[in-house]
Amino acid sequence: MRHYENLVIVKPTLTEEEIQAKLAEIAEIITSNGGEIIARDDMGMRKLAYPIDKNARGYYHVFYYTIDPASIMEIERRFRINEELLRFVTMKFDTKREVKAWTDLVEATNKRAKASAKTVEAPAATEAPAAEEAPVATEVPATTEEVVAS
Amino acid sequence: MAEKRRFKKRYCKYCERKTDFMDYKDISSLKFSLSERYKIMPRRLTGNCKRHQDMIAKTIKQARAAALIPYTVSRKAVVLTPFEEIK
After folding, report:
1. Counting beta carbons within 10 angstroms of the beta carbon of residue A53, is it exposed (0 to 12), middle (13 to 18) or buried (19 or more)?
2. Domain residue spans of chain A
3. Who among B20, B24, B67 is closest to A48 (CB)?
4. Of A9, A86, A97, which is closest to B20 when you measure between CB atoms?
5. What is the interface pTM, i.e. ipTM, of the complex?
6. Would A7 disulfide with which of A89, A109, B47, B57, CB 3.0-4.6 Å?
């Protein structure tokens, strides 16, 4: 088992649910090949530094996982077939020093995920129905205002 | 010789912080070794040591592949940048 990190950029033209479905599919690819996802970092919709396939934006998501090195080729093959993936970057963490950096990154992302889960606890509870998109959208600017105010 | 004295004594900022690993997703930390046009700054200007210069060069190239940092900035894009900040 070796430590890996995978950054994927999903097409911005998809809806929120389709993106989540796509990410679940990617996670499934990793786990079905014997990988174990330790942490996930949702970087969200970002502006790309340069257009990829005429797309100016992309949905960034990072997976931290351990997997047998032989399975990486299969995962990358599956990623390449996937048309909704604009780009993926696979990083190997091999040496002792790199593995330490990997654990640090995982800890940091988990901490961040916990912190964000606390603040977004209220909307997360009412997340289940798909029609709830509008209130979530209105809550986001509210929180940013708070950040600015504080 | 007299010309050289004008500059401050250079040292490696990464050595000072004892950096062992650089994350390509952390763009703000890469800014130091990038020029305005997102070129990798040479070692003779930043004062990085060889080891950390090699690390930062690799990290910047990884960030470019992930579309976090542009490869090149054309004259057109430079003009557009202020508008892009607003979105």
Report:
1. exposed
2. 2-119, 120-150
3. B67
4. A97
5. 0.73
6. A89
CATH homologous superfamily of A2-119: Ribosomal protein S6/Translation elongation factor EF1B (3.30.70.60)
Which has the closest alpha carbon to B59: A80, A79, B51, A50? B51
Chain A neighbors of B31, CB-CB under 8 A = none
Q: Does A9 touch chain B (CB under 8 A)?
A: yes
Nearest residue on chain A to B62, alpha-carbon basis: A89
Distance CA A80, CA B80 (A): 32
Helices (H) and strands (E) in chain B, counts: 5, 0
**Per residue in B9-64, pLDDT tens?**
678 889 998 888 999 998 888 888 888 888 999 988 888 999 999 999 999 999 99
The pTM (predicted TM-score) of the whole model is 0.75
In B, residues 45-64, which contact A (CB 8 Å cutoff)?
62, 64
Highest CATH level, class, for B10-86? few secondary structures
